[in-house]
Amino acid sequence: MHSNENNENEEHWTDHAICRGADPDLFFPIGYSAEVLQEQQDAAKAICANCPVIADCLTWALKVGEPDGIWGGTTPEERRYLRRTADAPARKPLPVIVVRGDASESEHASAA
């Protein structure tokens, strides 16, 4: 633990978040239909879009694996996608395998 972390006067990125003091229900939407849920997410994301600490917020949410709510302008599903793509190793193309009967004899001959 860093000694600076105990300093109550030290600013944190959350001190600059424009959602600070906003209704938490907006950022943790629970909709009864897909349309209502989408409207709540869109409203929260609109606030995030103007936030000076959106990148810090998203970085934090990805780092801790925040499973709920709108953080850094992203939904839980969007964050799962970002974590999957960031953690995934680079994909290499698989070799083409020709099995007998998959192609005509002339295609086999031209491939060889």
Concise summary:
It contains five helices and no strands. 45% of the residues lie in helices and 0% in strands.
Structure description:
- Its cofactor is [4Fe-4S] cluster.
- This is Transcriptional regulator WhiB.
- It is found in: Cytoplasm.
- Residues 18-81 form the 4Fe-4S Wbl-type domain.
- By secondary structure, the protein is an all-alpha fold.
- It has helices at residues 24-27, 34-49, 54-64, 76-87, 105-111.
- It starts with 23 loop residues before the first helix and ends with a helix.
- Radius of gyration, taken over Cα atoms and rounded to an integer in Å: 24 Å
DSSP strand content: under 5%
Could you describe the largest sheet, including whether it forms a barrel?
none
SSE arrangement, N to C: HHHHH
Tell the overall outline.
elongated
Q: Tell me the number of helical segments per DSSP (H or I, 4 or more residues long).
A: 5
Structural class: mainly alpha
The low-confidence parts are: 1-5
> Mean of the pLDDT scores?
81
Q: Tell me roughly what share of residues is in helical segments.
A: 40-55%
The strand count comes to: 0
Span of the ends, CA to CA? 63 Å
